[in-house]
Amino acid sequence: MMLHVARKCFISFKTEDIAFKRAIQEDVRIDIIDKSLDDPIDSSDEDYVMRRIRDEYLSDSTVTIHLIGSRSAEDFGLEEQRYIKRELQASLYDGANNTRNGILGIILPSMYDEVFKGVFQCPSCQAVHSLVNINDGTTITEFHTNYYIPNNKCHHTEEDRYCVLGLCA
């Protein structure tokens, strides 16, 4: 008999996408131990806020769910993305009191057409692969850099990455 263990998950999101975060939290079919921040930390000190997020929410989580919506791109600028960037950096950090999380990028409906561009036949292996547009225009560097880890292959599989993609249904 295989025992299923719920994962401790932290959800990284833009305020504009809070309805999707709540939908994940409330869906009884999704078996997670929610380690997300539900109420903003009352401080204007970004380092203090991130220290609390790392210590109280991320340190014992194993998966970070990154909601990829229409306001989640690197191209929106550092000020706009500062918390998402730092949350994903902390998720990928493997050090004292923190182990590296896997990151599941959930493509929200507003981004389907921007990210999923159909299929193509690979000239190297002749297999048909999905054409996925993950870059500064669709998400942040911390996600797409770890989605496309160089592997000397003609394509990437989930086993080749720290970051994988899923769809918001």
Describe the protein's architecture and organization.
- The protein has a single domain, classed as 3-Layer(aba) Sandwich (Rossmann fold).
- It is globular.
- With 169 residues, it is α/β, with parallel strands linked by helices.
- It has helices spanning 18-26, 46-58, 78-92, 112-115, 141-147, and strands at 7-12, 32-34, 63-68, 102-107, 116-121, 128-132, 163-167.
- It is built from five helices and seven strands.
- Strands 2-1-3-4-7 form a five-stranded parallel β-sheet, sandwiched between helices.
- The chain is 28% helix and 22% strand.
- 27% of the residues are buried.
Summarize the structure in short.
This protein has helices at residues 18-26, 46-58, 78-92, 112-115, 141-147, and strands at residues 7-12, 32-34, 63-68, 102-107, 116-121, 128-132, 163-167. By secondary structure, the chain is α/β, with parallel strands linked by helices.
Q: Please give the radius of gyration in angstroms.
A: 17 Å
Category by helix and strand content: alpha/beta
Residues in helices, as a percent range: 25-40%
Overall number of strands = 7
| CATH third-level topology | Rossmann fold
Biggest β-sheet, characterized?
5 strands, parallel
Structurally, the number of domains stands at 1
Order of strands across the biggest sheet?
A: 2-1-3-4-7
Shape call: globular
How are helices and strands ordered from N to C? EHEHEHEHEEHE
Strand content: 15-25%
Mean pLDDT: 84
- Total DSSP helices: 5
CATH architecture: 3-Layer(aba) Sandwich
Low-confidence stretches: none
Question: CATH top level?
Answer: Alpha Beta
